[in-house]
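tool_log.txt
---
The assistant was asked to compare two proteins side by side. It first ran the structure predictor on the initial sequence, then on the second. Raw inputs and outputs are pasted verbatim so the downstream comparison step can read them without reformatting.
(1)
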Amino acid sequence: MNPAILIRTGVATCLLIIFGVPCAAAQDFPNRPVRLVAPFSAGGGADAAARLVAEKLSESFGKQVVVDNRPGASNIIGTEIVAKAPADGYTILLAINNHAINAGMFTKLPYHPEKDFAPITLIGLTPFMLVVHPSLPVKSTQDLIALARAKPGTLNYASPGNGTAAHFAAELFKLRAKVELTHIPYKGVSQAVIDLVAGTVHVMIPSPGSALAQVKAGRLRLLAVTTHHRARTLPDVPTLHESGVPGYEFSNW
C-alpha cells in the first residue's frame, strides 16, 4: 500500500522542514526522535512504505524516526493516537485509503479526519492484485468468475479486516463480476496472506507489496490488477477491466 503522510493539525514545522523551507520555528526541529504511527500490522506493503519513509526522514532530520505499528479497527486505533497526540510535530501518521473510507463508513469517529490532521505529502498510488491459491483450478479472471458462478458462496476471500481497502476492492469485484464469495476478515494483511498461501482461503485482492513476493515464488497465482491501465511494474498482467469485468477500477493511496 502506498499511503500519505499526515501531521497533527497546528504544526507547520515538520511540513516546512520536509519541503526544505527554512523558518525560525523549524530551526531546532527535531531535537528528539519522531514517531511515525503506522495504523496497520507489520509485514505488509504499507508497513514497508512506512519503514522506507522513516529511514529517509531519519537521514534528513539527523534524528531517529521510529515506526510504531498500531493496527486494528480499520486503522482507527492508530489514527486516534495521532489525533490526540500533542500538536508538536513529533507524532505523524502514515495514512492509507482507510483514512477517507472511515469518514464514510462510521457515523462517529474519535477524531475528525480533516480538521485534526494536515496533509504533508502523497507517497504514491498502486494497484491491487487479484490473486488465488494455485490449487484453485483457474488460470484467468474469467475462469474464476465461472467457478464462482458454478459454486455460489463456496469460495471465500481474505481481507486485512472489515472496512479495509482490500475488503472494498473485493466487494466491488463481487458486484461487477456478479459472483458470490464469502468474506473472511483478518486482523492484518500478513496473516491473511499466510492463510492464502496455506490454502485456508481461496482468493484475495492485496497490494503488490503484500503479496507479489509470494506470486514470484509460485505460492500464489496472479490473475489481474485492479487499476484501469496496466501497472508499469507488471506490464504483462491484464487489468480486471480487460479481463471481462467492465468498469472495474480501484487504486490504493
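(2)
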Amino acid sequence: MLDYLFGNKNIEKILQYLSKNKTGYAYELSRQFGCSLAPIQKTLNKLERGGLLVSLNIGKTRQFQFNPKYPFLNEIEALVKAAYRFLPEDQKLTYQRLTRKRPRRANKPLL
C-alpha cells in the first residue's frame, strides 16, 4: 500500500513489522516475509544510514529498532499504523512475530 510512497516494498514491510514488534533482525525479517536476505539487509542499512533506524549487536545478531531521536518518527509511525488498519486480515498476520524469542524452560511439558 505504501510501497509507491517509499519506493520499495521492503521498506513498507520492515516499517510495519517494527511498528508491531518494536525490534527485529535481518534473518528474522527475511524468513517472516519469505524473501531473500540480501535485499532486506540492504534496506535495513539504508534506513539506518537515513537515521530512521538504529541497531545494536546482541551477541552475533544485529537487532534493529526505530530511532527515538528521529525528528519525524511520530508522523511515520502514525502513517504506518494507519496503513496497517486497511490491510486485509491475512496480510496482518505476516507482521506478527510467530517465533519464540527465548528457549523453552527445561522439563516444561508440551501442551
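---
observation on (2): Residues 3 and 83 are 11 Å apart (CA to CA). The chain has one domain: 3-94.
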